[in-house]
Amino acid sequence: MFTQMHSLYESAWVIPALPFLSFLLIAFVTKRSKGLSAAISILAILTSLALAIAIVLGVVGSGAEIVEHPAVVNVNWLDIQGLTINFGTLVDPLSTMMLFVVTLVASMVQIYSVGYMHGDRGWSRYFAYQSLFAMSMLGLVISTNLLELFVFWELVGLCSYLLIGFWYHKVSAREAAKKAFITTRVGDFGLLLGILFLYGQFGTLDFAQLAQAMNANLQGLVLAGGVSYITLTTFLLFTGPIGKSGQFPLHVWLPDAMEGPTPVSALIHAATMVVAGVYLVGRMYFMFQHAAPSALEFVAGIGALTAIFAASIAIAQDDIKRILAYSTLSQLGYMMFALGVGALTASMFHLMTHAFFKALMFLGAGSVIHALHEKQNIWDMGGLWKKMPITGWTFFIGVLAISGIPPFAGFWSKDEILAAALHNGHPIIYAVGLFTAFLTAFYMSRLFFVAFMGPEKKENHPHESPYWMTVPLIVLAFFSVVGGLVALPTHNFAFFVRDYVNLNGVVALKEFEPEGLAWGLAGISVLAGLLGIGLAYMTYVRQAIQAEAVVAKFPGVYKLLKNKYYIDEIYLWLIHHIMDGLAKVLYWFDIYIVDGIINGLALITRGSARGLRRMHTGQMQTYALVFFFAVVVIYLVYTLGEGQFAALNPLAMLGGVK
Amino acid sequence: MNFSVGLSTYLLVGAMLFCLGLYGLFAKKNVVAILMSIELMLNAVNLNFVAFNRFLATDRLIGNVAALFVIVLAAAEVAVGLALVIAIYRSRQTTNVDEFNWLKW
Questions:
Q1: d(Cα B10, Cα B7) in Å, to the nearest integer?
Q2: CB–CB contact B102 A614 (8 Å)
Q3: Which of A68, A462, B12, B69 has a beta carbon 3.0–4.6 Å from A387's, enabling a disulfide?
Q4: Residue A503 and residue A215: Cα distance in Å, rounded?
Q5: How large is the greatest C-alpha to C-alpha distance in chain B, in angstroms?
Q6: Which of A618, A624, A625 is the closest to B102 by Cβ?
Q7: Is the peptide bond before A407 cis (omega within 30 degrees of 0)?
Q8: Are the beta carbons of B102 and A620 separated by less than 8 Å?
Q9: Residue B57 — pLDDT band, cuts 50, 70, 90?
Q10: Which residues touch A330 (CB under 8 Å, ≥6 apart)?
């Protein structure tokens, strides 16, 4: 059984290759034919999905075998003295899960796009980018080494840039694309440094080899200040995920990325690309465990901060996509702190379920925006429940899933994270997570009640979206309902992912019982979710609590949240005052000091040359006279001089003739 | 009166001739006169060679041979020098070395 499956694993490279082929075909052949472009793109990603499902079935079936021996295929890409880089594919439970999630969401989004992008001038370009993105993301998750991963990491960044700025005639879209690219580049710089540090120390970037190298004793390597080399490297590596996964200081690009088409937001900025950072931390988890405890504590702290920070902003936002964007940030923070508290399994599990329900809600939001002709403010909506039943119901499932109501997907994963936080001794993080769960339930139901339940607006004439758009919604809603159930039996993905780390042998994670959901804790988090939904219901449907009155009571807080804690303004101020000021100083230094030295040297040379050239009179008699007197002087020095000069007497050298 | 002419007399005459030539080389403005001054210096050297041969190495002829070589060389040098002078004169209509200054800055 296993050997049979193995040949399938070895052809895992086909999964990213198909979308790439489709990208090339669309870009160079079928660009003019809209139908053909979409057909090729969707066909390619559906074939990839089928292959991914086959691999999933194989991995689930092969049990512990695949965990002990991940299927690795490497092709040498670069081999020079002291540097060997392979390109290859890695099939293990972690990458299999990612393959499935990415192909599923990507294919749903592409099918959805047929309806959403209908009549867009850039149709073929859109599908070409989508295919390129699918290729990059799939390549990223099956990379066997850090450099390969980094290449695809930058490629998904590029696709993100291209798709955010897809409607490049809009200034805001262009600016958002640039902002996203530059902000993530800040983090990528740290990541690249970390990769170089790793290579400098271990001479390899292969995940398996690195994991083995970590097992050798490394704590001896201590840099200045008691920080070990490995800890520093870990922090550097983590800056990549901070940028890519929108963690606290570098989160500013993600809300602005909503300028792109909504299916793009669903695919790239909710379900797949932004979780690449979480995936990277999961993949390099052995290193985080070997680093000082502060590394994982840092991950947990940043994650928890981002989770509550973004959730509180989401409460005060009015734009449907921005609420979802801040919700994404918050959930990414959830995944990060799950990693930080040692719950790798739960984090990956949440990554999967979040991909389902967040993609679902983004696509639902897209359906609403499509029906209302590009209106995005939730207060302009209302009463959509009756006019758009499929969108409404699927969105409702998404809201329940993210709020952690059983038996929907979000409940299982969120609960595992919270339980792990408490069990592994992080009560503060647990409290933050619980409060965030409450906030999440509140702002998601606020969005739902205002947009779908509120009074109908006369000027709107909403209609249900075409099947191209509703079918993906239904598929994703299905996974949002059942996606969490894989946690129930013992043989499940979450179980495998955890085992993977265990068997690669680094540090045993704290055990948790797959069936042993702590029901008490689960009850508390469900209560928090229900409380959030109930509060939103009272405020926005029953209007027993006047939102305006609450705002009036805390105007400062509301203003702070509404303006996203002024982070963008702070960055702007920093850029205008600190960076531009520094630039002015450096410019002055460059003009007057650096250029001054160079020009000064040139001036000195020119000045002395101007003086010296007077000696060249062109009068040969002058030259002869100078020559003659020089000979006389040299002769006198050598014959009459003492000491050193006399020793140099050429006549003496020739044999002592005096 | 036994009046003998020794080596130092010849050398003195040679040195005087050489200094005359040197002076002419530096002071004369006509390029032909300068060439003549150079001839003078070469002949002063010839005189030295012959005198040394006569007084110091009577059994060999090396000084005389050297003098012969110098004469040949001087003839060749004058030939080339005069050819240059003619060439310069054709293009510049002058033989004044002060005007041969187009190599200056």
A1: 5
A2: no
A3: A462
A4: 12
A5: 63
A6: A618
A7: yes
A8: no
A9: confident
A10: A306, A307, A308, A309, A310, A311, A314, A436, A439, A440
B37 touches chain A (CB under 8 A): no
Mean pLDDT of A466-475: 90
Name the closest residue on chain B to residue A618, using Cα atoms: B104
Given a contact cutoff of 8 angstroms between Cβ atoms, the answer to whether A141 and A279 are in contact is yes
How long is chain A? 658
Residue A46 backbone zone (phi > 0: left; psi -120 to 50: alpha; other: beta): alpha
| Cα angle value A257/A263/A268 (rounded, 5°) | 55
Neighbouring C-beta atoms of residue A226, cutoff 10 Å: 8
DSSP A455: P
Structure tokens at A46: 């559906």
Own/partner contacts of A114-122, CB < 8 Å, gap of 24 or more, are: A114/A38, A114/A42, A114/A468, A115/A370, A115/A465, A115/A466, A115/A467, A115/A468, A115/A469, A116/A261, A116/A262, A116/A263, A116/A366, A116/A367, A116/A370, A116/A468, A116/A469, A117/A261, A117/A263, A122/A166, A122/A167
C-alpha A121: how far from its chain's center? Answer: 29
Q: Which of A508, A446, A405 is nearest to A319 (CA)?
A: A446
A613 touches chain B (CB under 8 A): yes
Q: How far apart are CA B37 and CA B42, in angstroms?
A: 9
Strand residues in A46-201 grouped as ranges (E):
71-80, 83-91
* DSSP code, position A228: B
Interface confidence (ipTM) of the complex: 0.81
Look at the block and give the residue holding tokens 């490995």.
A230
Query: What token pair was written down for A325?
Result: 């964007």
Q: What is the rounded average pLDDT of the residues B76-89?
A: 93
Contact by Cβ (8 Å): A330, A322: no
CB atoms within 10 A of CB B12: 11
Residue A76 has φ and ψ, to the nearest 5°, of -70, 130
Task: For chain B, give the number of residues.
Answer: 105
Residues of chain A numbered 339-378 and touching chain B (CB < 8 Å): none
Chain B residue with CA closest to A623: the answer is B26
Q: Please tell me if residue A628 touches chain B, with a CB cutoff of 8 Å.
A: yes
Task: Say whether residue B33 is in contact with chain A using an 8 A CB cutoff.
Answer: no
**Model confidence band, residue A296 (pLDDT cutoffs 50, 70, 90):** confident
| Rounded distance between C-alpha atoms, residue A572 and residue A47, angstroms | 46
Model pLDDT for residues A309-341, shown as the tens digit of each residue? 999 999 888 899 999 999 999 999 999 998 888
- The candidate with the shortest Cα–Cα distance to A244, out of A279, A212, A213, is A279
Secondary structure (3-state) at B1: coil
Cβ distance A222 to A228 under 8 Å? Answer: yes
Choose among A391, A396, A410, A376: nearest CA to A445.
A396
Q: Is the pLDDT of residue B16 over 50?
A: yes
Distances (CA, A) of A212 to A168, A215, A339: 47, 5, 21
Instruction: Report the Cα A20 to chain-centroid distance in Å.
Output: 21
pLDDT band for A651, please (50, 70, 90 cuts): low
Q: Which two tokens stand for residue A549?
A: 């009155």
Q: Does A606 touch chain B (CB under 8 A)?
A: no
Q: How far apart are the first and last CA of chain B?
A: 63
* Residue A636, Cβ density class (10 Å: 0-12 exposed, 13-18 middle, ≥19 buried): exposed
